[in-house]
Amino acid sequence: MDIEAIAQERRPRSLAQGLSSLRTCLVKCKDKAVDLGRSIKKLGQDDPRRVIHSLKVGLALTLVSLIYYVRPFYDSYGISGMWAVLTVTVVFEFTVGATLSKGLNRGFATFSAGALGVGAQHLACLFGEEGEPIVLGVLVFLLAGAATFTRFFPRIKARYDYGILIFILTFSMVTVSGYRVEKLLELAHQRLSTIIIGGATCIIVSIFLCPVWAGEDLHKLIILHLEKLAIFLEGFGSEYFQSVNEDKPVISTEEKTFLLGYKSILTSKNMEESLANFARWEPRHGRFQFHHPWKQYLKIGALVRQCAYRIEALNGYLNSDLQAPPTFNKRIQEPCLKITSESSKALTMLASAIKLMTDPSLASLHLHNSEIAVDNLKILLKTTSLEDTELLSIVPAATVASILIQVVKCVEEIYQAVNELSDLANFKSAVKPKVSPEKPQAQLLIHLGVVKPVVNIGGNKGDVVVTVLDDKIPENENNSRANYPDQPL
Amino acid sequence: MDIEAIAQERRPRSLAQGLSSLRTCLVKCKDKAVDLGRSIKKLGQDDPRRVIHSLKVGLALTLVSLIYYVRPFYDSYGISGMWAVLTVTVVFEFTVGATLSKGLNRGFATFSAGALGVGAQHLACLFGEEGEPIVLGVLVFLLAGAATFTRFFPRIKARYDYGILIFILTFSMVTVSGYRVEKLLELAHQRLSTIIIGGATCIIVSIFLCPVWAGEDLHKLIILHLEKLAIFLEGFGSEYFQSVNEDKPVISTEEKTFLLGYKSILTSKNMEESLANFARWEPRHGRFQFHHPWKQYLKIGALVRQCAYRIEALNGYLNSDLQAPPTFNKRIQEPCLKITSESSKALTMLASAIKLMTDPSLASLHLHNSEIAVDNLKILLKTTSLEDTELLSIVPAATVASILIQVVKCVEEIYQAVNELSDLANFKSAVKPKVSPEKPQAQLLIHLGVVKPVVNIGGNKGDVVVTVLDDKIPENENNSRANYPDQPL
């Protein structure tokens, strides 16, 4: 075969190869575009406020651009109008609190640094033409160094970091440009007023167009976390004992991911702190006053996280390969299930108390029930005979029981903190049961009753909570109705 | 007494009161000043790099101010010189990585947005004098909205958030000011070049004057976390069993705070992630290449946190009020102490392997020992007779044992991850023992020996690790020398 023939044979093949690789490339590109489209859609659907926020930024920027387009504005502000554009881009944040924080920080910092800069300028003038740049340089060095150092203080960093940055920026720019630009005061005035225009545009658009309040987000986040703990505890009880009894996991992967919602609590500290920081800047909105006790939310958040750490430890025992003897499991199953379901109900009620901003004392009934269940569990563990069982096989179950007891302690602490929040924020009161909160006796095990509370939704002072006494043990512990013993609480 | 007399009597008293309140006020002010001085001193002493960083910012700002002071510079850049000042203030960050990330983001964003802005300007020109502002307004709205939305993508937010901000800023400013300022290209060129001057100043000062590398900080942070886990485990073993045996805590409050160092690991996720993000921007420095596997550090960090969650659960049992029978405690004490001390040693060795960047396989000896101890513990728990003991009283001790078993699993995973890091980053190899890693037999309990390894510090390939076999059980398990069974590893 001669070379030409080989070449001819190869040409179509390489053409076909080229076409196929082009096709693969196109398919890949299409796939990537589809993926991108999907992730954009998901991002928007997960929180539609993101789309609204993007539109709001566009709107605010277009509004301040008017300064340039409209002749009278331009004539009075000139090129300084761009500071308004700059301010909007930098100050506009997702939440009202963050926008206010940045806007006010920027405003005050510009004003104070501007004034100080003019002062420094005058001081430097006294040192003659040659001394001036040296004095100004030294001043910039000292002030920038000192201000940068203050940014390392955690409390200042949390609240005024941006302000200090703008302070350094403005001071340097005023002192430095003052050395050349003669119309210093006019420049400072123009800059300040355009920044005020930009900042005001941001704040107005942020507050009056579908506002996103950091405070409300923090409020909802804490509620969500409480609910996630409740979901885990409710699911854990049934999942653990069913899988232990029937020797196989009874829960689908989907439900499992649902159960694992609590994982996000473990690393939520920074988010809570920044939301609380921004919330402090926000004016009265919805049901929140200006001095709403946001710090208390952080306290609750920290306790919720403590509880989540315990739950993380519990989660490690969900698919344990060691099986306790069925008789032992059956014995501890009842109090353990009671603990998980009652703690879960207590947490759900605490979440709904925060949500409705009503007194959380109704949750104490469930908390109390879980404490009784803890006592019962302890009695059971005390009286269980272990003659025929290997200790090793019951260690996982005993560990679960032991951690559950700790979880109840955590829930108690959360209850106390929510109570404090209720006092601090003047939550509407629900009527507390007029009975003494005596420590229940262990005999309760023998005689359980059911109290169905009619939760008072309106929650005005003086409303009466109607409770119905029902003297039989519920057949299904897992239903959603609340179970209480008919003992003094 | 007439009024004058009363007034005379009161005057000195109110003067005295005034003086005393002034004194109190002065004392308070002095106290506050002293407190402030102390906290400033502490802030500087905790990390002296903070002071150096502050001085560096001052220096960089003074350097770019030269643009204004020096006539030739000013003549070519004019008022645009202030962009250099602005860039330095905003871009200069604590670590080199953060400074580079911000500087490069700012540079590229300014360039691309400037070019796009000029294009938009030309496009708008086509629509005539009346159409131009409308087209520009629509373009600004669309681009600002779209760019703001992309900032919600977590991956983009982590790396390019600042770049997108500057992109929006520059695009708006170029299009908007282009509508008025005729010398658009000159303006864009001046802005870009002054930004480059500012950015370059930052980067040079940041890199060549006592640099703070984010990568090195991440490296040290992970080492510190491993050491903190090791300290807790070492302390926990002795503390738990001594307090249980002697019925009182034997540890001082000071030591206790030392033990609780691990708490900072629980919430360190954000810090690790931001350090890793910045580290990616950093050039080769010290022992770290440009493509050092920083992601693997995040993986190790996550596993260390998992271990810290378990340890947080353990910590809850340090001062348990339930006392197990001394005989039971004595039985599980030995394997439990072995687990804690060997895991602790394994973690310490892993930390030092990362520190020295040598192969971590030496830690496998300790890990192996702790696995043997786990097996022994399981055998003990299997064979323990519980005829005379209450289950309730041994639950805490059993829980501790159970969690310790989980901790060993965590340490194993950490070991794997550090091994992967060692492969990825080409750590210097230490000689691995030439024996098969067979699962040890439980009989090991009966015949324990000691291997004293001579750790090879130089760690060059081919070096031989000398091990000394010593065939007796060590008298004191708590001493710092490493104990190994004389079985194949």
Automatic annotation (TrEMBL), chains A, B:
Its localization reads: Membrane
Arranged from A to Z, the UniProt key words for this protein are: Ion channel, Ion transport, Membrane, Transmembrane, Transmembrane helix, Transport
Q: Which residues form the signal peptide?
A: none
Coarse class of the primary localization is membrane
Q: Mind naming one GO cellular-component term on file for this protein?
A: membrane
Q: Which InterPro entries match?
A: ALMT
Q: How does it sit in the membrane?
A: Multi-pass membrane protein
Q: Which residues cross the membrane?
A: 51-70, 76-96, 108-128, 134-153, 160-180, 192-214
One Pfam family from the record: ALMT
Report the sequence similarity comment from the record.
Belongs to the aromatic acid exporter (TC 2.A.85) family.
PANTHER family of this UniProt entry?
ALUMINUM-ACTIVATED MALATE TRANSPORTER 10
| Protein name per the record | Aluminum-activated malate transporter 8-like
Q: What is the lineage of its organism?
A: Eukaryota, Viridiplantae, Streptophyta, Embryophyta, Tracheophyta
